[in-house]
């Protein structure tokens, strides 16, 4: 079969834009809810706060009317105490509710975010190449954040206001049945009207807001990442136009959402007024006939205002639910349920540290591989052996499969055939075990916007400053670091304050600190001044001196043959020549 042979179609399942099963969204929503024992205190406090607000208004009115009748002060005492208790209770319960419910939701949020990263990790980096970064960022940040609204602004308000509404209607019903009937009818009408207003005006916009935020983040990231190219080619205005359009669309959607909420709130206020007037009209007769005392009449007439204030949380919760569901949907489609074909599954079975000393570090036999989502094999039937002390050069034209081989060696991409590490088949090893043996220094090593120390220490947390300086000196950066004022010198965003060669040498130092027995260098001289390239290659190859480690250099720029112990030439994914 040729290098461009197709992968059997059954191998493919890497469509990350699939429609999620409803269970995915439901599962994400239920995982956004804190455990019951954390959720319950906030819910109880919220219900108590709402109930205090309703009782406060009713009892205050009762007190005012009863006081006007000038009874002995003793008769008013319980109401005076009750009003005070409800006023203080309302504020205290609400404060406690905010504290308890936000604490529970934020704790759950951190669990959610970690679980999202855990789902993302197995497919990174090879499985995420087709995903736009801005949109992914918006999913990881905004959509995960949005899920905190599920317990806070959807479930809790609906349950607590539901409890208070039922209690209020029942209490009013005991005093006056017609008043309770008016309440119930007005509440049902308010529910229907606010749901309708929301649906008709803002539902579609609410569902689109999360996706529009992702589009805006994408457009902004695109401009920021390529600001220099866009400026040089005079294309900045046009790209800014895309940002502007994404921003306009998002603003329009948010405005419609605000209009929908405004109309729903207006409808609720209108029906609250109608409920008050109707209660007044329907119960006035009972007062003149003496069936209902004036103080109770006053209380009942005031209660709708408080009850509808509690009810106002319901349409807001319905709107919030739509947006939360849209975010859950985006999260469910961000990561496929199954690993896409071409991405290796992590195995927890074996560990190379248990293996007795085996002379061969890496051995490939008939190894083939394809990129996730691709139908073409990028590597075919590759054989390779690497022992300690080896300095292997892999060469080949652009597109020959050199980088793919490097990615297979560190298990970013899966393989067919055999790939053994110290005699153990790599697919039986955990990714961490493989990456403990084989390290990769990429063409453009990523440098964190921090100091030199932090850029090295993540490879060896416990390394002392002396050890860091020793390694930096070994890779030829000792003097440079000293001139820059030591290990606290910053490297700038993406290494903007260091040259390509210095960045490669920092990556080299990292690899040394991590102590990989095999280090793969993918085009280490690609961003390096030609004058410095030879010295860098010589320093890299020198790492294998002493025979305790092997170095694999991938390069399509010439490397002196006598400096390496073996060469492997790739063309269209196949080994066409090998020496050593
Ligand atoms: N993410 C990807 N998805 C699908 N195909 C890919 C992907 N990356 C590379 N390929 C394809 O795999 C083949 C080998 O690419 P690879 O990057 O390994 O070549 P290379 O020898 O490293 O080239 P260069 O020297 O230009 O970096 C090419 O045909 C390329 O188009």
TrEMBL record:
The chain crosses the membrane at residues 43-67, 73-93, 163-196, 257-284, 296-320. Residues 42-323 form the ABC transmembrane type-1 domain. InterPro entries: AAA+_ATPase (IPR003593), ABC1_TM_dom (IPR011527), ABC1_TM_sf (IPR036640), ABC_CydC/D (IPR014223), ABC_transporter-like_ATP-bd (IPR003439), ABC_transporter-like_CS (IPR017871), P-loop_NTPase (IPR027417), Type_1_exporter (IPR039421). It is found in: Cell membrane. CDD domains: ABCC_MRP_Like. Residues 362-579 form the ABC transporter domain. GO terms for molecular function: ABC-type transporter activity; ATP binding; ATP hydrolysis activity. Residues 1-11 have a biased composition (Polar residues). Residues 1-21 are annotated as: Disordered. It is a multi-pass membrane protein. The keyword Nucleotide-binding applies. Keywords: ATP-binding, Membrane, Nucleotide-binding, Transmembrane, Transmembrane helix. One of its GO terms (cellular component) is plasma membrane. Pfam families: ABC_membrane (PF00664), ABC_tran (PF00005). GO terms for biological process: cell redox homeostasis; glutathione transmembrane transport. SMART domains: AAA. This is ATP-binding cassette subfamily C protein CydC. It comes from Klugiella xanthotipulae.
């Amino acid at each position: 079969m040729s290098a461009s042979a197709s992968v059997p179609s059954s191998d493919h399942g890497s469509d990350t834009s699939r429609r999620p099963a409803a269970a995915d969204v439901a599962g994400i929503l239920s995982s956004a809810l804190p455990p019951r024992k954390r959720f319950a205190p906030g819910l109880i406090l919220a219900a108590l706060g709402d109930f205090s607000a309703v009782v406060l208004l009713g009892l205050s009115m009762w007190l005012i009317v009863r006081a006007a009748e000038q009874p002995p002060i003793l008769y008013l005492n319980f109401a005076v105490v009750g009003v005070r208790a409800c006023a203080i209770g309302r504020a205290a319960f609400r404060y406690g509710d905010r504290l308890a419910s936000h604490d529970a939701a934020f704790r759950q949020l951190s669990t959610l975010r970690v679980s999202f990263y855990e789902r993302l990790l197995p497919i990174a980096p090879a499985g995420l190449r087709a995903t736009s970064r801005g949109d992914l960022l918006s999913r990881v940040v905004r959509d995960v954040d949005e899920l905190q609204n599920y317990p806070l602004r959807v479930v809790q308000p609906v349950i607590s206001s539901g409890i208070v509404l039922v209690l209020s209607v029942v209490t009013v019903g005991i005093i006056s049945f017609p008043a309770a009937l008016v309440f119930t009818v007005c509440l049902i009408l308010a529910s229907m009207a606010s749901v309708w207003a929301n649906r008709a005006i803002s539902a579609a916009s609410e569902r689109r807001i999360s996706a529009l935020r992702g589009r805006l983040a994408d457009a902004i990231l695109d401009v920021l990442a390529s600001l220099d190219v866009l400026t040089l080619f005079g294309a900045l205005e046009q790209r800014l136009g895309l940002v502007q359009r994404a921003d306009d669309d998002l603003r329009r959607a948010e405005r419609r959402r605000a209009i929908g909420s405004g109309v729903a709130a207006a409808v609720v206020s209108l029906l609250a007024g109608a409920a008050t007037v109707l209660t007044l009209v329907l119960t006035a007769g009972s007062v003149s006939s003496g069936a209902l005392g004036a103080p109770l009449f006053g209380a009942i007439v005031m209660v709708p205002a408080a009850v509808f204030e509690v009810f106002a949380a319901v349409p807001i919760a319905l709107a919030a639910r739509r947006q939360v569901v849209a975010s859950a949907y985006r999260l469910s489609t961000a990561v496929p349920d199954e690993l896409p074909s071409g991405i290796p599954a992590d195995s927890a079975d074996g560990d190379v540290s248990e293996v007795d000393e085996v002379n061969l570090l890496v051995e490939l036999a008939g190894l083939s591989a394809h990129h996730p989502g691709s139908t073409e094999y990028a590597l075919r039937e590759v054989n390779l052996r690497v022992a300690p002390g080896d300095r292997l050069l892999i060469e080949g034209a652009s597109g020959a499969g050199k980088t793919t081989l490097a990615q297979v060696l560190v298990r970013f991409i899966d393989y067919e055939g055999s790939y053994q590490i110290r005699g153990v088949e790599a697919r039986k090893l955990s990714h961490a075990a493989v990456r403990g043996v084989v390290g990769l220094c990429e063409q453009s090593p990523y440098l964190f916007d921090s100091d030199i120390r932090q850029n090295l220490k993540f490879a060896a947390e416990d390394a002392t400053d002396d050890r860091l300086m020793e390694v930096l000196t070994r890779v030829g950066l000792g003097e440079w670091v000293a001139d820059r004022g030591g290990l606290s010198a910053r490297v700038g965003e993406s290494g903007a304050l260091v040259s390509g060669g210095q960045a490669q040498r920092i990556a080299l130092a990292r690899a040394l600190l991590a102590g990989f027995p095999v280090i793969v260098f993918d085009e280490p001289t690609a961003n390096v001044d030609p004058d410095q390239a030879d010295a860098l290659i010589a320093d890299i190859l020198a790492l294998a001196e002493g025979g305790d480690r092997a170095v694999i250099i991938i390069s399509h720029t010439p490397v002196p043959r006598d400096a390496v112990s073996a060469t492997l030439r790739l063309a269209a994914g196949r080994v066409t020549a090998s020496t050593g």
